[in-house]
User: What shape does this take?
Amino acid sequence: METTSVRLRRKILRSMILIRAFEDRLTALAREGGRLAGIQILSVGQEAGAAAVLALRDEDVLVSNHRNHAHLLARGTDPEALMAEIMGKATGVNRGKSGTLHLIVPEVNALMTSTVVGAGPPMAVGAGFAQQYREEASITAVFFGDGAAAEGSVHEAMNLAGVWKLPLFFVCENNRWAGAQRLEVHLAGGSVAARAVSYGMPAETVDGNDADAVYETAARLVEGIRTGGGPALLELQTYRMHGHSEADPQLYVDPDELEAWALRDPIQRYVARLVEEEVLSASDVDTLRREATRTVEQAVAFAERSPEPLPEGALEDVWSRPLRRAREPQEGRRPRGTPRAPEALSVPRPPSTPGGAGRRLVGGQAVNEALAVAMELDEDVFLAGEGVGVSIHPNPMGPIHGLLQRFGSRRIRDTPVSEAAIAGLGVGAATLGLKPVVEVMFFPFVTLASDMLVNHAAKLHFLSGGRTSVPLTVRVKAGIGFQSGCQHSHNLEAWLAHAPGLKVVWGSNPADMKGLLLSAIFDPDPVVVVEDLGLYRVEGHVPEGDVRVPLGEASVARAGNDVTVAAYGAAVSTALQAADALEQEGVSVEVLDLRSLVPLDRDAVFASVTRTGRFVMLHDATRFCGFGAEVAAMVAEEAFGELKAPVRRVAAPDAPVPFAVSQERFHKPGPERVVAAVRSLL
Ligand SMILES: Cc1ncc(C[n+]2csc(CCOP(=O)(O)OP(=O)(O)O)c2C)c(N)n1
Assistant: This one.
């Protein structure tokens, strides 16, 4: 072996022996009952994959999956903190928030481990993008299984990495199983490497149980990636010697096949080769084994004597920046007539209130200005999405107008039609410290990006035990009334608001559209910013420069005394129209513009209800399980004592948005329905 030095080969063997000792101990602990909770997914038989990890540099980013202990140990993760996390202890790498399946270890640049099969590659795209964007010499390696190669997200990621020539190293550990499914029943064509070729990247397949071959091929591919050759893929042909997890007795595996692979055990083979080539003596190998055993025993002892995390710690690490919230949600009723501080009674409108300083712009221009201001202020801000550079509907007053010309194609990134990869790009780049603004063309297409948003953007900070952040902004275009039908018009804010860790905001006027977007971009947590297509054409006063609307602050769009109507987005104007009509009848309506769904300005809602005693919640989304149900329940549970009448909801009927103009008008709640709801309360 000429290219792999003696020192390096010893290091590879030491790593493989430690991994085996660590995981054998996990198996034993799992069998001892009570000493290890949860599932254990091991790499026994696949340890030569560690050689691919060792082909990386310290500054490279590692994106791992559910079978991650080997990758993390090879990378140099502290075995004590790792064992403590696997045991759910306070001293674990993620303070007990992750456990074994999604270990996040910032010390070794393992920032986005995921147990969602196929989720690693889209996030790796984001990490690789950040490295390319900053012109760093580092690369990102993402490990995934043969089963993951059937996930669409993996293909979206490979395609985007190929198109953008990202410094990405895809490593497929083909262990011939995906759960209880043999390779033949889940991988058409039998080769993952062959697929990569079609995405324009070099790909190689090696004996994944031959550590030297793995290292050499990995090192060669990594060199190509590092020197600007774009992504590459390595397929390791190996075998899973244990069940999918330690709870799986593998009854479906042919014992002869298992035995044949046992003869190709990567550690035994490597030991035999290194001893034969006199790289190591038999006693050197014994020493390595003894050292590994000692390290693992120390790790177990450390983990077992470590404290459990405090139960209340379960509420920590949801947000990077604590939510602005004066009162926590309470179960049960508030005492009747509890007084509120007068200053909480009215939350001021932003400085954009008509008549204030600023110019008149339409909503599309306001969004455009927010993007431009953010990009001027901070080089870490970039914009990505389908058609954000060149649109098929150019609009001189639209959100992206002129940005490509002004900021160039490095920062304005037109993407393929790949919502999972677009969202993954955002998650990965944000985790590496950029401030991505990614666009989902229409609200219903959020479904295609939802794994990245709900399982990753929203949870990575939590999973890491508060050690990483995802300052991602997702712009989503919404709207009903454009005769586009239900696959373009479907407001899904309640889905997103239901995912702890995601913030959701929705401006109702150009000034707020600008101010909320600016706040979102500079917020350390992931924020979905919904933009009503209709508001792109509506004019209003917009302050110049970097004027932000704080997340979590509602505003009183119109003050009133008899009834509160809360709404957000375009529905605020419906509420204002209703308020105008009711004024003719002598009814004074307070219109509360929530602006921010998560965090919700609970104080503003309670303050208004306390004064008016009547509450109507309005939104354009469908009624059943809509966001209004949450606010209505909150008012009924906590402000019951203030109410003079039942809480009412006005929302779209529980049906998809229809196409025909007459039916679409019928579907969208108009002012007359708000008027009727208010009258029913008086
Ligand atoms: C999206 C998703 N679907 C299903 C699962 C359940 N699951 C966990 S591991 C696994 C098999 C994955 O096979 P492969 O990618 O080959 O990795 P391996 O487990 O063989 O290392 C499945 C189906 C999951 N975690 N995520």
The radius of gyration is 28 Å. Residues 553-681 form a domain with the Rossmann fold fold (CATH 3.40.50.920). The longest strand covers residues 615-622.
